[in-house]
Inverse folding.
């Protein structure tokens, strides 16, 4: 566990010194800020506030930004030849994989925590009203908490997929492209399941979709056990395969 913490701290430190990581954070907050401002202007005085709306957009943006955060994790190590140095350390391969994943998930969690400012704005509008007889209802905190739990697990799953593809190639661009393609396909599974006539095939595709396990449960305030298991299971499977890929390098 100590080795995992050391590697995670090292990876997290690299994110806070990487211009790309800052650009990713800026782009996500810019897009979610635009989404929040649009939603806010449409809802105030006309519709009940929905703090989870911006997290729906955050999930979609994650599909495109998660590959940028993960593409360098192993690909850069392989390209620069530092992976051999890392593997000669008294550290298990599983610790290396887990540590790198923990580092990127912590950085993702940091970016996600910055979106809490949108909830503060909603609370300030609904709690400290300027007019004593305003019709703006209070913000429903339940769905917001559920959505944050869901998007955190959703992000962890997308990052685990990115980690796998980063371990498969030494080219960061290729790793990012493959990750983005895979995540986009997993995202579209929900829509594909709605247009396929065969009910069994449609249900199977929807069960593999990231969207169906997030937008139809966590995002509307429902925490289902099977959805939690899906995201955690996807993370575990991706980390297991990545560990096997790293172990195979010892025999090359």
């Amino acid at each position: 566990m100590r080795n995992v913490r050391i590697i995670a701290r090292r990876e997290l430190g690299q994110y806070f010194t990487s211009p790309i990581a800052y650009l990713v954070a800026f782009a996500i907050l810019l897009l979610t800020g635009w989404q929040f401002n649009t939603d806010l202007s449409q809802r105030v005085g006309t519709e009940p506030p929905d703090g989870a709306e911006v997290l729906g957009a955050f999930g979609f943006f994650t599909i495109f930004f998660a590959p940028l955060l993960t593409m360098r994790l192993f690909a850069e190590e392989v390209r620069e030849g530092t992976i051999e140095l890392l593997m000669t350390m008294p550290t298990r391969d599983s610790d290396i994989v887990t540590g790198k994943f923990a580092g990127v998930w912590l950085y993702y969690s940091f970016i996600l925590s910055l979106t809490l400012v949108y909830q503060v704005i909603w609370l300030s509008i609904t709690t400290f009203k300027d007019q004593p007889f305003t019709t703006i209802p209070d913000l429903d905190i339940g769905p917001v908490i559920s959505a944050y739990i869901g998007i955190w697990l959703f992000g962890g799953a997308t990052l685990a997929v990115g980690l796998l593809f980063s371990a498969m190639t030494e080219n960061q661009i290729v790793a990012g492209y493959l990750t983005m393609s895979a995540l986009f396909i997993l995202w579209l599974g929900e829509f594909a399941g709605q247009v396929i006539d065969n009910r069994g095939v449609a249900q199977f595709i929807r069960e593999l979709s990231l969207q169906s396990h997030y937008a139809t449960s966590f995002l509307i305030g429902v925490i289902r056990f099977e959805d939690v298991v899906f995201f955690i299971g996807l993370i575990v499977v991706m980390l297991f395969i990545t560990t096997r890929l790293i172990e195979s390098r010892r025999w090359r």
Summary: The mean pLDDT is 82. The two ends are 27 Å apart (CA to CA). The first helix runs from residue 2 to 15. Residues 77 and 245 are 14 Å apart (CA to CA).
